[in-house]
Amino acid sequence: MSQGTRDIEALIETMARLPGLGPRSARRAVLHLIKKRTALMAPLATIMAHVAASARECSRCGNIGTEEICAICANPARQTGEICVVEDVADLWAMERGQAFRGRYHVLGGTLSALDAVGPDELHIPRLLDRIAEEGVTEVILALNATVDGQTTAHYIAEALEASGVQVTSLAQGVPIGGELDYLDDGTIQAALRARKRF
Amino acid sequence: MSQGTRDIEALIETMARLPGLGPRSARRAVLHLIKKRTALMAPLATIMAHVAASARECSRCGNIGTEEICAICANPARQTGEICVVEDVADLWAMERGQAFRGRYHVLGGTLSALDAVGPDELHIPRLLDRIAEEGVTEVILALNATVDGQTTAHYIAEALEASGVQVTSLAQGVPIGGELDYLDDGTIQAALRARKRF
């Protein structure tokens, strides 16, 4: 096997380690890249190297950016006194796509887990407590996933914040927009019924 | 939006253009890459730039390699007098994984298509005819996909080769290994029955 073939093999193996890609789809993707090596593959390699060299976690909220402090934390207009707590940067991106929240974030980087030895320190919960005083926070919105781990973590944070006197809220649970009742799980139906509102 | 955020957005958009990845899975992949930017993203960018700069089509068979002539064509042990005609490099890779064919390949780069204005010249069929004389070919194995376009192309090549006196064969059609009859389409059952063999 020549060096060139080995490089292509190594590229396929590396691509196959991305989430959502297996060996088969990695082969397809690499073949597509090689066919479009000037228009697609070379620019992709360049921008990937660029992001790999410049990306870093915001030292305040854990969001991904290129500076010590991310663009959201650095924006004074977003110091609204609200902090939205999310598990992961992907959730932060999802919230931003919603364009409904104008405050700042705090990325936990996971959920509490006794099994995986993830404790409050790993989730930057002490840093969250520090920020509440420093940034004059009045409301912490818990936007954690509606899983057992997510909700356990939410309860832990709510308790940790009790002494600070800050208001703690969480995202509403109920029927998703466009959702059909027949396709919803029992838990969602129950939660939506319990939290019913005057029409 | 900062330059860093724009770079990340551009990376997501470029990744989303790969086959098998959409906007959502591209976001997940990029986030995964950023989290493992030293261990995964930087090496991936390096190897991708390397392959983008060095990959090229073999001038003889159309396979992808790094030299004027690919590793298979350059290997004298593979001059067996057999040429396997495939539609695409992905099919060549599939044949190589099978480890059953020891001859050389000819990659068409597609199938004949009146609608897309793909004619014999686009598929390097004249080059295939040249190779038969040059390389002392005795058998051409048509390993085209069992689709209408693939089979139309196979018939065209078989006719074009008639005058050359070379033996033209095609892959057997029938029940796949591990296949259950109940899940096979009618055409496959019919083909397998017509081509039945003494047990």
Automatic annotation (TrEMBL), chains A, B:
Residue ranges of every copy of the Toprim domain listed in the record: 81-176
Alphabetized UniProt keyword annotations: DNA damage, DNA recombination, DNA repair, Metal-binding, Zinc, Zinc-finger
Residue spans, zinc finger C4-type: 58-73
UniProt superkingdom: Bacteria
Function: May play a role in DNA repair. It seems to be involved in an RecBC-independent recombinational process of DNA repair. It may act with RecF and RecO.
One GO BP annotation of this record: DNA recombination
PROSITE patterns per record: TOPRIM
Lineage: Bacteria, Pseudomonadati, Pseudomonadota, Alphaproteobacteria, Rhodobacterales
Pfam family, one: RecR_C
Protein name as annotated: Recombination protein RecR
Keyword Transferase: no
Residue stretches spanning the membrane: none
Database matches in InterPro entries: DNA_Rcmb_RecR, Rcmb_RecR, Rcmb_RecR_Znf, TOPRIM_dom, TOPRIM_RecR
GO molecular function annotation: DNA binding; zinc ion binding
Record-stated family: Belongs to the RecR family.
Keyword Metal-binding attributed: yes
